[in-house]
């Protein structure tokens, strides 16, 4: 069976001892960038890279790395006390990750958690900006802890869940490696940007990351279909049907749907005669 793009869909469940073993695109000697960005799974690859960028540019790593520095900026000179206070952020992250384990395949799914997490992180960044401006240590700690809770229950783990769900074995190794590279590179850039804005940005410090977090929720709403309970074949179909407007645009018809509509039209024409 083939999709409209002409490339066969792959499902791990169909692999058997009597079937030729699938080989990754690097082992086959193909140009990996052409396969990833112009092949049948190009939409899934682009979505994964977008998720990697938003995952880090929302400030997720920097909030933890610069928690003590933020407290120092608003007047807390005691480093030991700063480390003790910022430990609440790590505790909030632990709670969020545990909660995500039960929610991702339970009552929620991937899309609602990612969208809700992005909105929550955005609100917390605004709250953090207010806390820094009024130099309120309790408000800053609360905002950072709630931010990390929002991130941990959503983007922290679900990013890796999606990486395991949206690619066939043919491209998974290269695609996940590329997305991971973008993730860590984005984290390095976001850390530098976070520090620069903290020192010189004033209110723009938190508002920039609030806007990025808000944009991450919008990105998921438009470009990330729900994969909960779907097979690889179904997930691939959903991504191949994505147009420039993502889930907001018209869905491409699958071949069997087109044939059914043609058949229905022919039947109506014959009946009218």
From TrEMBL:
Coiled coil: none
UniProt KW Nucleotide-binding keyword: no
SUPFAM superfamilies xref list: MFS general substrate transporter
GO molecular function: transmembrane transporter activity
Domain Major facilitator superfamily (MFS) profile: start-end pairs: 1-228
A Pfam cross-reference name: Sugar_tr
Compartments where located: Membrane
Region of interest: Disordered: 1-20
Membrane-crossing residue ranges in chain numbering: 83-104, 113-134, 146-163, 175-198, 204-224
Membrane topology: Multi-pass membrane protein
InterPro entries, A to Z: MFS_dom, MFS_sugar_transport-like, MFS_trans_sf, Myo-inositol_Transporter, Sugar/inositol_transpt
Keyword vocabulary terms for this entry: Membrane, Transmembrane, Transmembrane helix, Transport
Gene Ontology CC terms: membrane
This protein's name: Major facilitator superfamily (MFS) profile domain-containing protein
């Amino acid at each position: 069976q083939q999709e409209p793009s002409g490339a066969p869909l792959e499902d791990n469940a169909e692999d058997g001892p009597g079937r030729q073993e699938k080989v990754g695109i690097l082992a086959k000697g193909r140009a990996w960038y052409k396969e990833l960005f112009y092949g049948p799974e190009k939409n899934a690859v682009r979505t994964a890279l977008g998720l990697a960028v938003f995952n880090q540019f929302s400030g997720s790593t920097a909030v933890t790395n610069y928690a003590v520095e933020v407290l120092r900026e608003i007047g807390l000179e005691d480093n030991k006390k700063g480390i003790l206070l910022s430990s609440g952020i790590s505790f909030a992250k632990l709670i969020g990750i545990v909660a995500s384990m039960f929610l991702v395949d339970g009552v929620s799914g991937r899309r609602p958690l990612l969208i809700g997490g992005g909105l929550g992180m955005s609100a917390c960044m605004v709250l953090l900006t207010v806390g820094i401006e009024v130099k309120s240590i309790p408000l800053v700690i609360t905002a950072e802890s709630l931010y990390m809770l929002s991130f941990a229950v959503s983007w922290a783990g679900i990013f890796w869940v999606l990486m395991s769900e949206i690619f066939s074995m043919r491209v998974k190794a290269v695609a996940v490696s590329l997305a991971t590279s973008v993730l860590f590179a984005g984290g390095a850039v976001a850390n530098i940007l976070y520090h620069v804005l903290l020192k010189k940005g004033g209110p723009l410090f938190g508002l920039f990351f609030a806007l990025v977090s808000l944009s991450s929720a919008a990105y998921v709403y438009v470009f990330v279909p729900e994969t909960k309970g779907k097979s690889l074949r179904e997930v691939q179909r959903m991504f191949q049907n994505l147009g420039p407007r993502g889930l907001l645009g018209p869905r491409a018809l699958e071949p069997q749907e087109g044939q059914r509509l043609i058949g229905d039209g022919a039947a109506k024409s014959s009946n009218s005669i």
